[in-house]
Amino acid sequence: MEALMLVDDPAFERIMECVFGIQSHETRTFLRLYELQGSTVSELAADLERDRSTVNRSLSTLCEKELVTRERRLLEGGGYVYQYFAVPVADVHELMHEAVDEWAETVHERIDEFQP
């Protein structure tokens, strides 16, 4: 959050990166997935023009941060593939507001505790 405070007019993407502790490529992956709901790693990698392993790591991080969900889809010929879904923007907003409110509360407590 410190880095965010140094920016006068931060973009949504930058706020997202600071609040969730993610990298810019993970934010790009989230935003693209939001437009391509239900994509597989291969589909996203092709669309983002990135290596599958990099996209897979980004998706794993986003799943850990509860920004992305994963569902297993059975294939007709046998086997399965995972499809990924970005959570609704309203949920992202709520998670971000909660994180910022929690951080602000902590800062206010530190200010109130200060006694020179």
CATH superfamily: Winged helix-like DNA-binding domain superfamily/Winged helix DNA-binding domain
Order of helices and strands: HHHHHEEH
Low-confidence regions: none
Number of distinct helices: 6
Average residue pLDDT: 91
Strand content: 5-15%
Look at the helices and sheets and give the structural class. alpha+beta
Q: Tell me the total number of β-strands.
A: 2
Strand order of the largest sheet: 1-2
Radius of gyration: 18 Å
Fold-level CATH name: Arc Repressor Mutant, subunit A
Measured as a percent range, the helix fraction is 55-70%
Give the total of domains: 1
> What's the CATH class, please?
Mainly Alpha
Oligomer: single chain
Organism: Natrarchaeobius chitinivorans
InterPro entries: Tscrpt_reg_TrmB_N, WH-like_DNA-bd_sf, WH_DNA-bd_sf
Protein name: MarR family transcriptional regulator
